[in-house]
């Protein structure tokens, strides 16, 4: 980082701290900043008080297609798209969108962890994932790229039968999410 200005370096450190606080794995930080691995490990320990977990990110695109993750991923990506369309820089938009998502779902352990949200953005960027418009609610939902989507119906409008067994409280929350997804679409 010797070539970079102090302001650049400070901004990168700030981003790294923010990402660590939100639960980022080391691989996210290594990809999105130019800070050395050794410094990132040190930073991680300072912020979280523990060493970063080891190992590769196990995520595949399939996880985003399962029922509940798909709703959460679609909600998060709606926030992200809206911010990007307003000209917010990529990583700023990412962090903001993730904070919106956390505020919205209000859970201690969100379905979509930050590293998964980041993986989602990367899958879109490498065109492994795409969006489909639900024919019933007209919300936008995450699908595999290059799959037919003209008659797509989302997981809220057509939940799998096992989802019918979940609590009414959960259902109410999904309906909230649907309204939010629509607001994102119209916003
Ligand atoms: Zn729908």
From TrEMBL:
Cofactor note: Binds 1 zinc ion per subunit.
Alphabetical list of InterPro entries matching this protein: FlhC
Pfam families in the cross-refs: FlhC
Location(s) in or outside the cell: Cytoplasm
Keywords per UniProt: Activator, Bacterial flagellum biogenesis, Cell projection, Cilium, Cytoplasm, DNA-binding, Flagellum, Metal-binding, Transcription, Transcription regulation, Zinc
The keyword DNA-binding is annotated on this UniProt entry: yes
Binding site for Zn(2+): 134, 137, 154, 157
Superkingdom of origin: Bacteria
Cofactor: Zn(2+)
Family, per entry: Belongs to the FlhC family.
Function per UniProt: Functions in complex with FlhD as a master transcriptional regulator that regulates transcription of several flagellar and non-flagellar operons by binding to their promoter region. Activates expression of class 2 flagellar genes, including fliA, which is a flagellum-specific sigma factor that turns on the class 3 genes. Also regulates genes whose products function in a variety of physiological pathways.
Complex formation: Heterohexamer composed of two FlhC and four FlhD subunits. Each FlhC binds a FlhD dimer, forming a heterotrimer, and a hexamer assembles by dimerization of two heterotrimers.
Name of this protein: Flagellar transcriptional regulator FlhC
Lineage: Bacteria, Pseudomonadati, Pseudomonadota, Gammaproteobacteria, Oceanospirillales
């Amino acid at each position: 980082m010797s070539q970079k200005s102090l302001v650049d370096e400070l901004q990168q450190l700030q981003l790294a701290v923010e990402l660590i606080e939100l639960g980022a794995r080391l691989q996210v930080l290594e990809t999105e900043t130019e800070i050395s691995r050794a410094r990132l490990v040190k930073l991680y320990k300072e912020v979280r008080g523990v060493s970063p977990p080891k190992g590769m990110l196990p995520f595949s695109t399939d996880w985003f297609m399962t029922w509940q993750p798909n709703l959460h991923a679609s909600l998060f990506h709606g926030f992200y798209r809206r911010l990007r369309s307003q000209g917010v820089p990529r990583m700023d938009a990412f962090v903001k969108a993730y904070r919106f998502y956390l505020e919205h779902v209000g859970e201690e352990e969100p379905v979509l962890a930050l590293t998964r949200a980041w993986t989602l953005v990367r899958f879109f960027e490498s065109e492994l994932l795409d969006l489909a418009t639900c024919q019933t609610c007209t919300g936008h939902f995450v699908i595999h790229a290059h799959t037919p989507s003209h008659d797509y119906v989302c997981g809220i409008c057509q939940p799998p039968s096992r989802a019918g067994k979940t609590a009414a409280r959960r259902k109410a929350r999904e309906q909230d999410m649907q309204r939010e997804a629509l607001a994102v679409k119209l916003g």
